[in-house]
Amino acid sequence: ATKVDGVARTSHTGGHRFAPTGIVLPYGTVWAFLDADALHRLRHRTGPLDDLLPRYRGCAGLPSPQAQIVERHAFAEIGWEWLDWQRRAVDLPDGRTRLEARSPHGEEAAWEAVVERVGTTPIPRCGEPIDDDVKTEPRYAARGVARVG
User: Fold this and answer.
1) pLDDT tens-digit series, residues 93-128
2) Is pLDDT above 70 for 14?
3) What contacts 65, CB < 8 A, 6 or more positions away?
């Protein structure tokens, strides 16, 4: 890995085409499809989030894709400060996912949603056409995300 002005470059972060193109440490946030402008805005936490949120894959410290989906909604609501919040996820017995968070100023909040499997995404072998996929990953969507605290 090489490092220039706080940005380190590495040759590989995962084993397939859906691997992240950026991991922000020490926060453990994972991003995809980064270009120079997105990387600059992310590094400096500046500008609108609306076009960056679809590139956000979630915090690697959360235990599931369901929690990461709910987290993206919280990030959209809170804005850049969200990256400084402590957060944890809880799977509720009724199938909902709860994301609990605390701001650096002590504010506590929680979000809940039902996150459902809505299909699959093919994962082709490296360098092979997507139609030749041999594995799939579940694809999820959140229903009824609401701030509850």
Assistant:
1) 888 999 999 999 999 999 999 999 999 887 766 677
2) no
3) 58, 115, 138, 140
Residue 87: how many other CB atoms lie within 10 Å: 20
Give me Rg for the CA atoms of the chain: 16
**Residue 142 host element (H or E):** strand 135-147
In whole angstroms, give the CA distance from residue 124 to residue 23: 23
Contact 58, 30 (CB under 8 A): yes
This prediction's pTM: 0.81
Report the distance separating Cα 147 and Cα 48, nearest Å.
21
What is the length of the chain?
149
d(CA 64, CA 69): 9
Q: Are 61 and 28 in contact (CB under 8 A)?
A: yes
Give the containing element (helix H, strand E) for 119. Answer: strand 108-123
Q: Which pairing describes strands 29-31 and 108-123: parallel, antiparallel, or unpaired?
A: unpaired
Q: What SS3 state is found at 40? A: helix
| Residue 148 confidence (pLDDT) above 70 | yes
